[in-house]
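Fold Annotation — chain and its backbone
Encoding — discrete vocabulary of local shapes
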Amino acid sequence: MHLRALSFPLLITASALALTACGGSSDDDKTYPNAYVQFYNGSPNSAETDLYIEDIEQGGAAYGDASGLYTVDTGDATLTLKRTDASDKLVEVLSKEVNFTDGHKSLYLLVGDYESPTLIEHKFERKELTDHFILYAMSAVADANYDLYMAEAGAPFTDANKIDSLSFSEVVEGKYWDADTTNPDWDTGDYVVYLTEPGKTDVLYESPTIKFSYDTEYMLVIRQSAATTQNNLSVDLVINSTSVSSYKDVRAGAQFRLYNSLQDSGLTALVKGNDVEQSSNLQHNELSEFSAVKYGDYQISAQNEDNSLSFNNRLLTLNQGEAKTVVLYKNKENTLTSLAFEESDLPQVYDHELNVVNLAQDYANVDIYFVRQDETVETAQYKIKRLGFAGSEDISLPSDYYEIIALHDDNSGNQTLLFRTPALAIDEAVNYMVAVEPDSTSASGYRVVLLN
């Protein structure tokens, strides 16, 4: 089966989008002369999943993301979804026989539990549109139904229009409430999406302003956030692109946690803002649980037990649906300070996104290696190079056992071993953090800790 990947920059014009989607001119001058296929991953406990047509890989998608759009030959074919396990072997998720039709797009949406997922086929005929779009919608949230409302940007919910009722895994076509007699399609423009429980008017979700600016078919998917903020709803918009626009609830709460990296002193930290005043007593090297708060701007103050170290009114911004970890540490001037990083909201089941922080004051940069049983530092597949002091970086690891090795390279071929952990299991569905931090009991003066 012959396939051609179609690539779409995010900021191209609608007319350019239509021309690119055609894959070139055709003899019969049809706007969409081919069959098209795309994959969206809406399974909340999934791994990154690759799409195969007739055993040819066509790209993949993590949770809440989509593959590219591909042209395929018409007729019957075998569609397979696969993931890569910790041993770098392909594991089949599911396989099914499908049929492709000229002029039609087949969008495959994976939903439900990844151990026994459901694959939805949504096939529709593509059409040439001018200043209009077509809207399809579905819920990828199991055991939950919603009423979908939409309004023009700036309008309150009381002026919103009910579009349809959404049930898990069922695709509906949303009808435009202000369509004219000559064109039933939606006018391109700015809209707001609302969700309620069926038959009720208490708003569960409100989107920011969403720009429906392309003359194309949109698939609107309701899904839940994964990882720390897993109860928050999001709206994804899938079009003919690998870029999926995701919109969080504008009223969603946020979360934060604190880590005291000091090895010899407890800390008291105070977080204030939005009618919240929360005090936390942290023992040395203690990571707190996540605290749920309203989104907004907060002030953090902290001091150690004898008040010899302190800071006041450090800004912490928590956006809607966001979770952050705040690390309290001593800088090179030996004064107390903080850094914050955002936690991943992707599933932490098969793959784990770790935040790695370097608190080694004596080194301009540190290399961190995640070494599996059959690897050495030189052959390790997963590593972070030249992480600066007080810097943080993310890395995604498959479930497995890893030795975590921190080295300093002086650029002359000399490497200093700062710390080497025993083999540690990274296989729980939690948010992990790795810190290279001072430790007076270590030969190097530093240690590596794995926290969750």
